Amino acid sequence: MKRILLTGATGFVGKNLIVYLKKKGYKIRVFIRNKNKFHLKNKKIEIFVGDLENKSDLDNALKNIDIAFYLAHSMSQTKNFERLEKLCAKNFADACSKNKIKRIIYLGGINNNRELSPHLNSRKILGAILRKSSS
User: Fold this and answer.
1) Comparing C-alpha atoms, which of 89, 95, 102, 87 is closest to residue 135?
2) What is each CA distance from 34 to 23, 46, 91, 98, in whole angstroms?
């Protein structure tokens, strides 16, 4: 059975993805900053509280994981969200490589490679960072 780590589990997509993946029989570990914001109380979902800025949190969360979903974003965390998002994506990619994660699945944003908003440009950059992982 494949083991999945899911970041962004408290968001709309993350919550619905968990329900879908559980129905398919996957073992789920969520990586969240705040346990109080996670409302899917299920004994079969493993909760890991950590921060994407902390490399050791990521290393520990990714142990024994096959597939890692990156659905996190940092737009609400700081005015300089682009810098924080790059740092978090780099930490995640490095930890995935270190833990030999078989696949990273990233949900970015639709772009047309023309003039992008800061948010969509950041999403595009994160995709490039995550693609550089050996996972």
Assistant:
1) 102
2) 25, 14, 19, 25
Q: Sign of torsion, CA 130 69 99 89?
A: positive
Identify the residue whose tokens are 């994506």: 89
pLDDT per residue over 51-94, tens digit each? 999 999 999 999 999 999 999 876 555 677 778 888 999 999 99
Q: Quote the number of domains for the chain.
A: 1
Q: CA–CA separation, 28 vs 31, rounded Å? A: 10
What's 45's domain CATH number?
Answer: 3.40.50.720
Q: What tokens were used for 124?
A: 């595009």
* Helical segments of the chain, H only: 12-23, 55-61, 81-98, 118-131
DSSP 37: G
